[in-house]
Write a structure and sequence with these properties.
The chain is mainly alpha-helical and 100 residues long. The protein is 80% helix and 0% strand. The longest helix has 28 residues.
Length: 100
């Protein structure tokens, strides 16, 4: 799914579920809590030796990454940010950067 379609999907789903009634501050806090949950799963993966348990954690991590992306897209929608354009602009900036 391309960004434009995904942004529309998020917008429609949020309207359907009433998520659009959450304040910007609350949405930001939801975003940050999801980042924390993602970090926890990353730590769980790092410190787990069992391959079976790692597979479970990897699945949980994939869901947390999705939640982070979802919340970021919802924030972009609230500020009418076109992520396709933002991606292109930022990649052009990154192409010209040098990292040490």
């Amino acid at each position: 799914m391309e960004w434009k379609k995904f942004q529309q999907y998020v917008e429609d789903f949020c309207e359907e579920k009433g998520f659009d009634e959450v304040s910007d501050e609350e949405r930001y806090l939801f975003f940050m809590s999801e980042v924390g949950e993602m970090a926890q799963e990353m730590l769980n993966y790092r410190y787990t030796e069992s391959l079976e348990k790692k597979a479970e954690i990897k699945q949980a991590l994939s869901h947390e990454i999705f939640d982070v992306i979802w919340n970021a897209v919802e924030i972009a929608n609230r500020y009418e940010i076109n992520l396709t354009e933002a991606f292109s602009e930022k990649m052009e900036i990154n192409r010209k950067r040098t990292w040490s």
